[in-house]
Amino acid sequence: MPSAPRPRSRTKPAKKARPLGASTRSELADLQRAMLAVVTRPLGRDTRTQRRWSDGRRTSAVAAEIAKPNDRLTAFERLEIYNRMYWFRVLDSLHEDCPGLRAVLGERKFTRLSEAFLQKYPSRYWTLRDLPQRLAKFIGEEPALTKPHTTLCVDIARFEWAQIEVYDGAAFPVFTIDDLLDANPAKLKLSLQPYIQLLDLRYPVDDFILAVRTREVLLRGDASNAPTELRRRAAAKVRAPKAERCYLAIHRHEGKTYFKRLEPAAFNILVAIRAGKPLATALGVGIPRAKRPREDWAAKVQSWFRTWMELGWFCRK
C-alpha cells in the first residue's frame, strides 16, 4: 500500500537577507547611512574589513542587507572593496599633508594617530583638502597619542593646515597707494587678504618643516648617485625643535606658498588689522610703550608696511 503523505511542517524556512529597498526618499536615506557605516568602519589589524559588526553579528550578514552578490563576489567582498579603498585613501591623504607630524612621531605612531582621528572626526567634506582642519584640535583632546611631543604636534598641525588654507584661499583686489588718496588717517582701516594666516606658535616649526621637506626631496631622488654630504643629510633624521616663541605669517606670492617670521609688535599690528581696528588703533595695540626710547619705531613700522604692501597683503573689500 502506498505510504500516507507526511504532514507539512509548520516551521517556516528562514528568509534570506534581502538588500534594503529604496522606493522612497526615507528608505534611500536609510540605505545611504547603512552604506556609509560599512564603508567608514575601521579596518581590522590585517587591514581587511572586520568580520564582526559592532553588535556582534557577522559583518557578512550586515552586508547582505545592503548589497547583492554577483557572479564573482559575495556582498561582503563587494563592500570590502569600498571599505578598504576609503581607509587607504584618507590615510594616504593625511600622510601627504602632514610630513612634519610624521617626522616627529614616526610612521607607526602617526598611523595610529590618523586612524584614531578619523574615527572621531570622519571625513564629512566633498574634498580631501579639508580633512586635516580639525587635526590640531584632536591632538589637544587626545594628548596620549602624541606624548611627549603633544604641544609641538599641535603647533605643527596648525602650521600644516594653515599652508593648505593659504594655497587656495580667497583673494581680493590688492590695496594700492592710490587707495590712500583722500583717506582720513585717523579713521583709515586696512583689510588683510583672507588667505593670509597668522600663527602664534610655541615652537619654531618653520625651520623644522623646511628641513623635513628637504630630506624628503633627497629621499625621493636618486640618493645613491648624490654627493656624500647629500646622502648623509637624506639619511639623518631631522631633530625636533626646542621650545621658542615664534610668530609667523603664512602667505602666497605668484602662486607659491611662503612663510615669514614676524616681530611680536608686527604680529600684533596685523592681528589688530584683521580684527577690523582702525590703523591708528592697530598701531597703538601693536607697538609697546617705549622701554627703549632710542629705538626708532617709526622707521621700523614704515619698513614693515612697505614690505607688506609689496607682497600684496592688504586688499580692498
Give an account of the 3D structure.
The protein has 317 residues and is mainly alpha-helical. Among the domains are: 18-86, no CATH class; 170-197 and 263-315, no CATH class. It is 47% helix and 7% strand. The chain contains 12 helices and 5 strands. The chain has helices at residues 25-39, 59-64, 75-97, 99-105, 107-120, 135-141, 150-168, 205-220, 228-235, 264-274, 279-286, 297-310; strands spanning 191-192, 197-201, 246-253, 256-261, 314-315. The strands form 2 sheets. The protein has a 3-stranded antiparallel β-sheet with strand order 2-3-4, sandwiched between helices. Strands 1-5 form a two-stranded antiparallel sheet. Strand 3 and strand 4 form a beta hairpin. Helix 3 (75-97) crosses helix 5 (107-120) and helix 8 (205-220) crosses helix 9. The longest helix is centred in the N-terminal third of the chain and has 23 residues, at 75-97. The chain is elongated, with a radius of gyration of 29 Å. The chain starts with 24 loop residues before the first helix and ends with a strand.
Q: Tell the overall outline.
A: elongated
- Give the topology string: H per helix, E per strand: HHHHHHHEEHHEEHHHE
Helix content: 40-55%
- Major beta sheet summary: 3 strands, antiparallel
β-sheet strand percentage: 5-15%
Q: Based on helices, strands and strand pairing, what is the structural class?
A: mainly alpha
Span between N and C termini? Answer: 102 Å
Instruction: Count all strands and give the number.
Output: 5
Task: Enumerate the strands of the largest sheet in spatial order, edge to edge or round the barrel.
Answer: 2-3-4
| Individual helix count | 12
Low-confidence stretches: 1-18
Q: What integer value in Å does the Rg equal?
A: 29 Å
Average pLDDT reading:
86
